[in-house]
Specification:
Elements lengths: L8 H7 L7 H21 L3 H17 L6 H8 L2 H8 L26 E2 L9 E9 L9 E5 L20 E5 L5 E6 L5 E2 L5 H8 L5 E2 L3 E6 L6 E7 L18 E2 L2 E3 L18 E5 L2 E3 L18
Parallel strand pairs: 1-5, 2-12, 2-13, 9-10
Antiparallel strand pairs: 2-5, 3-4, 3-8, 6-7, 8-9, 11-12
The protein binds benzoic acid and fe (iii) ion.
Length: about 300
């Protein structure tokens, strides 16, 4: 351990671990140190740059609390959140996508066909589809968390004029696996830019915009929980999402519908006279499989 050099420091770090260290933790720490040390060598990191990085992380911590998750945002804009999602996304079924910071636990229940729009401005949009298994079986009793922005691009948590759970709901599918709700079309919005992550985006010439989207978390017995979001085909930011969440199979369409055609059987039936829009999107879950063994130093051919 004495006289470590820039070549031996990574190995020396590994030797500091106690013999009882959890194998997975030892693996993650060793690989992290390997890449961190390689990064410092490769960039010939200066003391000033190292200190700037420390100050950035301190500022990220200082602005964070139980509502403001600046480290999650940092992970999002680096594409790390999307990468972790993709590493564990099922090979079949609907792709997963980033959770984001605006999901609220315990949102009020909404019956299938219920309305989220209420008195909010905007055209009526009917969103509907089937929650099903990869083999096509409809999944009755599936629980869906739904959340989105209003037409002003703000979530309830960001806008004091909105009720705490405005545009947040939970829905349980019937026997036929169907979900349906009426709402408004959410707007594209920027990730929070008033903190260190915003400064970093600015300093690197990146814009903070996300395409508009509807968020879903879907849970059904015997199936993998799906965290995802769906994006309209005509959104200007589809190919430049600041947090890298867009996948081809998550793209949907707002299809215009003529006045006088709003269907029966929904909370707003008989109350929509003008034009309205329809989004059809099935949410496909894959069945639970036995998990692959965790990678550790022993079973991994790490470079
Ligand atoms: C969102 O989808 O709400 C979101 C995701 C990542 C960062 C900020 C917001
Ligand atoms: Fe969002």
């Amino acid at each position: 351990m004495r006289n470590v050099t820039s070549d031996t420091i990574t190995e020396a770090f590994l030797k500091t671990f106690g013999s009882e260290t959890n194998p997975r933790l030892a693996f993650i720490m060793e690989r992290f140190a390997h890449h961190l040390h390689a990064f410092a060598r490769e960039t010939n990191l200066t003391h000033e740059e190292w200190m700037r990085g420390i100050q950035f992380l301190e500022a990220t911590g200082a602005i964070s609390d139980d509502k403001r998750h600046e480290f999650v945002l940092l992970s999002d804009i680096f594409g790390l959140s999307a990468l972790v999602d993709m590493l564990h996304s099922p090979e079949d079924g609907t792709s997963s996508s980033v959770l984001g910071p605006f999901h609220q636990e315990n949102a009020p229940p909404l019956a299938v066909g219920g309305d989220l729009k209420k008195d909010n401005p905007g055209d009526v949009v009917l969103v509907e589809g089937i929650v099903k298994s990869v083999d096509g079986t409809p999944l009755g009793g599936a629980k869906i968390d739904i959340w989105q922005t209003a037409t002003n691009g703000l979530y309830a948590a960001q806008d004091e004029a909105m009720a705490p759970f405005e545009f947040h709901a939970t829905m349980v599918t019937g026997e036929d696996g169907r979900y349906a709700f009426t709402t408004v079309r959410p707007a594209p919005y920027t990730v929070p830019t008033d903190g260190p992550v915003g400064e970093l985006l600015e300093a690197t010439g990146r814009h903070p915009w996300r395409p508009s989207h509807l968020h879903f978390i879907v849970a059904a017995n015997g199936h993998r929980r799906l965290v995802t979001e769906v994006f309209p085909r005509d959104d200007a930011y589809l190919d430049e999402d600041a947090v890298f969440g867009v996948r081809d199979d998550l793209i949907m369409e707002y299809v215009p519908q003529p006045p006088g055609t709003f269907p029966a059987g929904l909370e707003l039936s008989g109350k929509v006279d003008g034009p309205w829009w329809k989004v059809s999107f099935d949410l496909v879950l894959c069945a639970l499989k036995t998990a692959a063994p965790e990678k550790t130093l022993e079973n991994c051919n790490a470079d």
